[in-house]
Design brief:
The chain is mainly α and about 160 residues long. A two-stranded parallel sheet has the order 1-2. Helix 1 packs antiparallel against helix 4 and helix 2 crosses helix 3.
């Protein structure tokens, strides 16, 4: 039977036993937001450095307009209708804009989602200070394989005879 996972937003209370796995929700959300807010602007800026970029009002126009237009389309026009209309109507060559903005937004979202999901995996609530440590899960299996005898060594040993 698996142990119940404790979802912590902030500091883990001392009442939680060390054997109980803890999911740090604040770490997952923070990593997602930090990664999204750093990779999307930088990738969009890099995309606009490509040759034959269409003239645009500013980079911030695309940083705010593209997600608004996508959310507007996904919600059938209910979210950000004014900003989405302003963004779409200001583009002279929409395909050139979406070729630059689309991949940077998709890559940023996928990378931030992957890192956020990895950060949301439950972790052990124990802190290893010093001395031998009990290995668990994949780490224990990896160490057991590393320490086990190889087939050639088993033949040379001759046991069990």
């Amino acid at each position: 039977m698996k142990a119940m996972v404790y979802n912590a937003f902030g500091k883990v209370p001392t009442a939680i036993p060390p054997s109980q796995p803890v999911r740090r929700v604040d770490h997952g959300v923070a990593l997602f937001l930090i990664l999204l807010l750093t990779t999307y602007p930088s990738l969009t800026w890099l995309a606009w450095q490509l040759p034959d970029s269409p003239l645009t009002p500013s980079l911030s126009f695309h940083l705010m307009g593209a997600p608004a237009a996508i959310l507007n389309k996904l919600t059938f026009g209910t979210v950000y209708p004014a900003r989405a209309h302003e963004y779409v109507s200001a583009m002279w060559e929409p395909w050139k804009v979406w070729i630059r903005v689309g991949p940077s937004l998709a890559l940023s979202l996928s990378l931030a989602t992957w890192v956020g999901a990895k950060a949301l995996q439950p972790r052990s609530n124990t802190w290893h200070v010093s001395g031998p440590r009990l290995l668990e899960g994949r780490e224990a299996i990896r160490e057991a394989h590393r320490r086990s005898m190889k087939p050639r060594q088993i033949k040379e040993d001759g046991w069990p005879g």
